[in-house]
Amino acid sequence: MSALDAAIVTSSMVITIMAGLYAGLGLNAPKDLDRRAEMWFAVAMWAAALTGALVGGDLAIGLVTGGLVLLILWSILHFPRIMTLETPMPRLVPMFTFGICLVTIVLLGLTAFLIELL
Predict the structure, then answer these.
(1) What CA dihedral angle connects 40, 59, 70 and 45, to 10 degrees?
(2) Burial of residue 10 (number of CB atoms within 10 Å: 0-12, 13-18, 19+)
(3) pLDDT exceeds 80 at position 87
(4) Phi, psi dihedral angles at 103 (to 5 degrees)
(5) pTM of the model
(6) What pLDDT is stored for residue 46 in this prediction?
(7) Which of 41, 49, 56, 84 sits CB 3.0–4.6 Å from 15 for a disulfide?
(8) Residues 6 or more apart from 14 whose CB is under 8 A from it?
(9) DSSP of 44-89
(10) Angle between helices 3-26 and 32-55 (to 10 degrees)
(11) What are phi and psi of 79, to 5 degrees?
């Protein structure tokens, strides 16, 4: 397993864990529509992450990075001042998701860049 494959698998694990966290917290949402939105988002993110982990190569980088960007946008919907979705969630979870996804994107980009140099 190369360093790029390890970075892709790690990034897909971050997506899977964070989407699962949102799905679990979404089960306590007061509206049925919000519960369904959280679950369908988690299913889409799990599909992108697992496909990226299994495929490898450039397609995997695109799938995983796209999943991380969508997860960042999903976390923005949960920021305390925005609250588009009425999911009961601790205040720091969206900000933590935002930060961890940005760090993961940067590390994945650095790994891909360093692999190209070598």
Answers:
(1) 30
(2) middle
(3) no
(4) -65, -40
(5) 0.86
(6) 94
(7) 49
(8) 68, 100, 101, 104
(9) HHHHHHHHHHHH-HHHHHHHHHHHHHHHHHHHHHTSTTT-SS----
(10) 170
(11) -60, 145
Is the pLDDT at 1 greater than 80, yes or no?
A: no
- Residue 118 CB partners (closer than 8 Å, separation 6+): none
Kindly report, residue by residue over 44-69, the tens digit of the pLDDT: 999 999 999 999 888 999 999 999 99
Of residues 96 and 88, which shows the higher confidence score? 96
Average pLDDT of the chain, as a whole number: 89
SS3 38: helix
Tokens 């940067």 correspond to 106
Contact (Cβ atoms closer than 8 angstroms) between residue 89 and residue 17: no
